[in-house]
């Protein structure tokens, strides 16, 4: 095991926001910074998401659940308004969409890739 702590630190302010593009679909107004990339799954499992005002992500399923923390702004998820400081855990196979009227930044942990429905 690598014991150099510096190999595990992500300086998020030094990373550029990238447009969210999944399977060739560009989700307008949503940007991402990868925090933890899983080479075995070939995908990020911990990310920062930034929604511009009015941006939305379509109805989808989380086969292995998810965890998210609203760092800034607010988001509407499954009929609930989450605001700065709110945490949400959804169990496996929980389905919902996401919209942010005013914009937000979310810390997002997702063990498996979401399924757009």
UniProtKB/TrEMBL annotation:
This is Anti-sigma factor. Pfam families: Cupin_7. Residues 7-108 form the ChrR-like cupin domain. InterPro entries: ChrR-like_cupin_dom, RmlC-like_jellyroll, RmlC_Cupin_sf. Transmembrane segments: none annotated. The lineage of its organism: Bacteria, Pseudomonadati, Bacteroidota, Flavobacteriia, Flavobacteriales. It comes from Chryseobacterium flavum.
């Amino acid at each position: 095991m690598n014991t150099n702590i510096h190999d595990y630190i992500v300086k998020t302010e030094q990373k550029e926001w990238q447009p969210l593009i999944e399977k060739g679909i560009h989700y307008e107004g949503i940007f991402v910074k990868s925090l933890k990339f899983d080479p075995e799954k070939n995908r990020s499992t911990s990310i920062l998401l930034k929604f511009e005002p009015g941006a939305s992500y379509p109805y989808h399923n989380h086969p292995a659940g998810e965890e998210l923390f609203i760092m800034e702004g607010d988001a509407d998820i499954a009929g609930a308004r989450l605001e700065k400081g709110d945490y949400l855990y959804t169990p496996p196979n929980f389905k919902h969409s996401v919209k942010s009227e005013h914009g937000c930044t979310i810390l997002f942990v997702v063990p498996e890739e979401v399924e757009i429905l």
